[in-house]
Every structure is written in C-alpha cells, then in structure tokens.
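[Automated response] Your request has been received and processed.

Submitted sequence:
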Amino acid sequence: MHAVKQDWGTMHVSHRAGNGTTLVFINSLGTDLRMWDKVCALLPEDWSTLRMDKRGHGLSDNALADTHGGYGIPDLAGDVLAAMDDAGVHSSILVGCSIGGLIAQHVALMAPDRVEGLVLSNTASTLGAAEGWLARIDAVRANGMAAMADSILPRWFGPKMLADPNVALWRTLLSRTDQEGYIATCAAIAGTDITDRLPEITQPALVLGGKHDMATPPEVVEMLAQNLPRADLVVFEDSGHLPAIEVPEAFSEALVKFVERISG
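Generated structure:
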C-alpha cells in the first residue's frame, strides 16, 4: 500500500519493483487493484508491477468529494502517468481491462514515448452508446450500487465464474464501490470515442476478449484489433468481461508470451 497525493486527493498505488520488464495495470469499472492479484502472482519474479485504484474506487479518494465537477478519461490517464512518475517508471507496458484499456489507449496517445506496448483486455475505442451509460447513472442514483450488482455481474463473468462461490466476493466489492465515484467514471466513459485516433497508436498491442463477454463482445474487441496498426488478438473460450479474474493462467500465459516477443 502506497499513497500518492494528487490535486484531487490521495491515490492508492501498489508497486513491486524488479530488475526486469515493467507492467502497469489499470482496473475495470467497479473493481480495484486486487483484480490483478492472480495474474501478478504468475508473472516472472523479476518483473516490476505497478497497480493503482482509480478515483472513487478501492482505497483512492473520491475526486468529487469536495466539488461538483467531473473528469474525463484523459484525467484518469494523467493519474496513471502520475503513478508512474512516483514509482520512477519512465516507460512500461500498459495492461488495461475495460475502461482500463480505454485509459491505456489515452496514455499511448498523450505520452507515446512512455508506452512500450499495450495489453488491451475486453475494451474498445468507445465503450457503448452514451445513452446506455446515462441510463445506468440514473439507475444507480435511484437504486444504489448494491441493487445494481445483480444485473452487472452477468456482464462481468461467464457461466463458470457465475457458478463459483467466489463470485460473491466480487459482488460485495462492486456493491461497496463509492457511488459518486462510480457515476463520475460512467460519465467519463459516456463522453469518449477515440476511434478516429487509433492509427496514431503504433506500439505493439495484444487485444484480449472473452467468448461470454456481454459488455464488450468478441466482435467488438476484434474490431479494435483490426483498427490498431500493430495488434494481435486472443479470445478466451471460458471467460466473460474480466478474464484476469476468471482465467488468470490463460491471461498470464498470453501476457508473458506477448511481452517476451516484443522485448526480444
């Protein structure tokens, strides 16, 4: 656990230093940095990992606690760069899931010299229609996070994970997510579409999807891979939207192969 002070509050960061490759992990909506625990445990011991909780998630402050202003995906990308600065990481391979992948794409556009490659899990250049996100915001405001969890979990996980008793832990994590932080992050997603800028992201990329993903179905991640100049595609047969949680062994295997290939 490590606190990084930002102008909006305190960001929770976890940094494991090593002598090898550095990976920066960026979480999905409604999760915290623990979503990467099993993947990180399977990585080579000399690799460095940097993880952080987004604003309003996990142990990070809610950026809207003292103001009524919002923030966008570029602001969240700036938080990633701030965490890298604090850890003394100049450049790295970014690993992002869902909104984390969208944030990673923004970092690559904002500071391309700091991105050696991208692992983009279950994400896209725009994550659905704005109307859907605005409807979710209204539902969260009306019903609260706990009431929304049962409808969100089937969008997160495939059948195997939904039948696993451990799914209850992820439901609890989602239910306890700061409501205003969740809403502000949904609003940031709703206003984002960088499809026309994908040709500018020239770093090697690995795009990952899940056969049972209801949030970013396989055809969506396939489109992302096709539109990036240097992307490979892997779709996991037994996962939904969060393969780092559902199939960490397969996820880490694909990740390590990609890193070793682009690192020579």
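Summary generated for your ticket: Strands lie at 2-6, 9-16, 22-26, 48-52, 92-97, 115-121, 205-210, 231-236. The chain has a mean pLDDT of 95.
If you did not submit this request, please reply to this message.
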